[in-house]
Please model this.
Amino acid sequence: MKFRTIFILFNVVILTSFLFVFLLPIFLLGPESSLAFWKGNWYLALVFLLLIVGLNAFFLLNRKTFSLVEREDWGELSAHLVGLMFPRSRFTTGRVRLLVNAYLLQSDIAGIETLESELEAKKPAVLRKNALLFGVTRLLRNRSGEAEAFFSKYLDSKDVESRDWLRFDYGFSLVLQKKSGEALPFLEEGLRSSDPVLCLLAAYLLGSVGAAAAPSEDERKAAEAKADAARAKLRKRYSSAKWSKEVERAKSEVHIVILSKLIEDAGAWLYTESKTPRA
Model:
C-alpha cells in the first residue's frame, strides 16, 4: 500500500474515532448534559489532538524515507539515511536497521563496515543493541571466525535485540569452523527458545554435527534424544503448510533470511521419518 494512501487512511480513522467519541455523549446524554460532560473531560479532546498532531508530524518528517522505501530506491535511501545520521551522529535503531537492509540489497559490504565503524566510535550502545544484524553479515560473507569473535563480545549483553538468536548464531559460527564440541551448550540452549524457527535449527544441528562431536557415546545419545524430542514437539504443533507460513513470517527479519538454506534443510528434516540428521 502506498505511503500516501496509508497517510490518508490513518487520518480518516483517527478523525472518525474522534467524532464518534465526541458525538456519543450527545446521543446518550443529550446536548446539555454532553456539554457538562466535555467540560469535565476536556483533556480527552486534547489527547486526541496531540495524537493526531504527533503522528502526522512523524509521517511528514519521515516522508522522504517512506517514499524511497516505497520506490525501492535503495541507493538513494542509503544516501538519505547517511545524511540524516552521520553528520551529527543521530543514529537510531530503526534507521540503522533500515540502512543495513538497504546496503545488503545493494551488496554494499563496505557501507555496512563504515556504518559499524561509526557506531563503534560514536554510538557503541546502538551497535551493541544491533549486534546480531552486524554479526550475521559476517556469516553471509563466510567469515565465520570473524563472526565468532564479534558475537563473543555481546553474548552476555542484556540490551542486545534478539539475544537468543545472537547466542545461537555464535554457536553456528563455531559449527562452521568445525568446533562443534564448543557449540554444544549454545545449541542445547536454543532448544529452549520460544521461537520455533530457532528451536528447529538448534535441534537440527544438535542432532547432527553436535551429537557427532559429543565426547562420549552416552552424551551423543543424549544429544540425539534432545534433538528428536524438540523435533517431535514441533512436528506435533505444526503441519507442513503451517510451518511454511511460520518460516515466511520469520523471514521479515534479515538475520533469518541469511540462514534460508539452513532453515530449508532443517524444515525438510522436520518432516522426514529418520530420527536425526547425520553429519
Summary: The radius of gyration is 25 Å.
